[in-house]
Design a protein that fits this description.
This protein is an alpha+beta fold and 168 residues long. It has helices spanning 2-28, 121-124, 127-133, 138-147, 149-152, 158-161; strands at 32-40, 44-45, 50-55, 62-65, 71-75, 82-89, 93-95, 99-103, 109-110, 113-117.
């Protein structure tokens, strides 16, 4: 009996996995409103970069992630025609120049993003990245993160960590 259950579980898992792959392929073939490649001189095409687009006058931002080939693509259903400011987040890098694009109805826009090594890494770090970079045991860091969580929800640790004041 346990062998039958195991075989059935494997078959169900295989069917679910195949269905998931078809869904991913279907999503990848959807019409794109904006696409491009994220790259830097140091790393070439870059995977895992958060690319964000915000339409002029909008109160929300749409974000996608670059794939293993450095390509990003915004589905047409998520961006309407209009002018967009495009930003990115990749710790250690800045955009080489401000990026804007105007999207026309029914025609995908294209914008490749060139990144440069940042000159101010500290300003890009999140509070959690700061917490992981300071000395201490994992337990001490965890305690500090949870103790300050209420403040760090709205405020970053940048001002504290970049302070030039000593304890004296």
């Amino acid at each position: 009996m346990p062998k039958r259950v195991l075989v059935l579980a494997c078959v169900v898992t295989g069917v679910v996995a195949a269905a998931g792959r078809r869904e991913v392929v279907a999503q990848g073939s959807a019409a794109a409103a904006l696409l491009g490649i994220v790259s830097s001189q140091e790393e070439g095409n870059m995977e895992g970069v958060l690319v964000s687009a915000r339409q002029d006058g909008a109160n929300f931002t749409v974000t996608v992630v670059s794939n293993a080939l450095g390509r990003y693509s915004f589905p047409a259903a998520h961006l309407q025609p209009g002018k967009y400011t495009v930003t990115m987040r990749a710790v250690g890098y800045d955009l080489s120049a401000p990026a804007t694009v105007t999207l026309d109805a029914g025609k995908p826009g294209s914008l490749d993003l060139k990144l440069l090594k940042t000159k101010d890494l500290a300003s890009q770090m999140t509070s959690l990245e700061w917490a992981h970079s300071i000395p201490g045991t994992p337990e001490e860091k965890e305690s500090l993160v949870h103790q300050l969580m209420s403040c760090a929800y709205c405020h970053t640790w940048n001002r504290i960590m970049k302070s030039k004041h000593s304890a004296a």
